[in-house]
Please model this.
Amino acid sequence: MKKFLAAVLLVLACAPARAARFERGPYLENMSRDMVTVRFRVDADSPAWLSYGQAPDCERFLTPVAAVREHKVQLFGLLPDTTHCYRIYLPADQSTGVYKAFEGNFTTFRDETKPFFSFLAFGDSGSGSEEQLELAAQMEKFLPDFVMHTGDVLSDGLDADADDQYYKPYANLLSRAPFFLALGNHDYGRDLKTAAGKGFLKANFTPFHSVPLTGLPPHYYFFDDANARFFVLDANGFTGAQFAPDLAPGSKQYKWLEHYLSKANDKTWKFVMIHQPLYSTGAHPPEEEVVKALEPLFLKYKVDLVLQGHDHDYERTLPVKEGLPDETGGIIYITLGGGGNQLYIQRRNEDWSAKFLPVYHFAVFSVNEKNLKMAVYNKAGEQVDTLEIQK
Model:
């Protein structure tokens, strides 16, 4: 502790005499078994200090950060499957002091020798509605290893709205579990289909989010946890987003997906997250081009679950293959689009639709070796659907 204070005081000798305050965060992203990115925003350019270690030793290591407003601190060399404690210090009112602005915990991912994990999934939340806040309060009661968001994080994609629609509603969860985000059409902004949309993500999304460097960030990437691989795709090009990467057969994203799906044969589980649904009976009918492009790949490489958004409802399909229920060779598609926006009703009936609910919801997944359990909850915390898969 003495060494920590000495380091802080040395830097603060040249720091402005003011107290820095959080405006956003802290929030965790881009976690693996041995690293995590801690991000936060302060009210003006300011130095910061992040101490961390295996809990309860919060000050085993110290990382000083330069004076900026938007802080991005990458912690490397962490122990897998380990709960770490971290503290963030900011300058105090006097130039010779600091104060502890935050203390929290996170747990790094597991390797293949420990094939169990849990995660929470939801989407289409960007609204700031009362329903979004009620749902967020229920989500906080769970302790997932990470969170997946199926897209449309913000109503119009603007960072100016991000605090009310994303960072504040999920503040407690963001500080202890990393979020992995898929891009939805709203995240591209209102001008997504015209030349005016150029640079929108670079101004409103990319500077504030960290994703694994395993594809083309922030559009598509994959990550591993325990015995599973997760693919996050960007299909917005199919629905007219001018600056979204192509996902048609032969495109760079398509080739990337096929390559890394083929390299995941050693994984027990394969999950895909995509905003635009392949199978849905909600307001947005499935895009025929999306189905034709992706379903053959998903079937060929035995994807277990596809998590999707876009339709503001909950829907679970039966195992489906080429438009027909198929219990032996089909894939289950789960629409998780009731995160806070106005809900949709069911528009048609299909034999492959197992359950449709126009409710605000989130799903909690628990995987233990070759067993998967899913429980879906509404904004009152009531369980509204379940699923179990035994491989």
